[in-house]
Amino acid sequence: MKSLSASKKGLFIVFEGVEGSGKSTQCRLLSERLTLEGISNIRLREPGSTETGENIRAWLAGGSDIDRFSELFLLSAARSALVKQKLKPSLVEKRVVVLDRYIYSTIAYQGFARGIRRDIIDRINGIATEGLDPHKVFLLDIDPEISFERKKDNISDRWESEDIHFHRKVRNGYLSIAKGNPTLWEILDASSDEKSIHQLVWQSVLELFDQI
Known about the structure:
Layout: E1 11-17, H1 23-36, E2 41-45, H2 51-62, H3 68-92, E3 96-100, H4 103-113, H5 118-129, E4 136-141, H6 144-151, H7 164-179, E5 185-189, H8 194-211
Parallel strand pairs: 1-3, 1-4, 2-3, 4-5
Helix pairs in contact: 1-8, 2-3, 3-5, 4-5, 4-7
């Protein structure tokens, strides 16, 4: 396996999925495995991981009167701060970036579920990210009925409180995006046990190391 330190760039990995799919767990497991292997990495989340992002996250969690476009712009502001302050600097330092959600969440939630046109979302995403794309996206796919069971006693934000129909739209959106770019995306069965999922993720990451 080629060492990451010998690469010209870092590695950018994203985890996506509906609420309760296990994204955060897989982000943590991957980061811990990378650290164990002596590979420099940073684990980040959207919205969050910067002062701007965490403030927006808190606001969105408690704001019930935020319309869909305000939601879109707030999330994009948090993303812009993350890209400039954390993502790009980490990649310059040749670190592995493990990110919980990215632009695809916006397409799935604000696009497929909220009904904002894709071309509008793509333009705003492009500005916020400055065209920065990941090397790999893992979709933790699960039936919202199952993920709802997982999260029923831990509802903490505006999206988790949406009804099952909303989350079905989100899931369908993710699957549509992923199937449109099978080279970038890997769809994983999130109803499997977390250790088995992590092993699949790790094997894919090892392959990525050989490619960069």
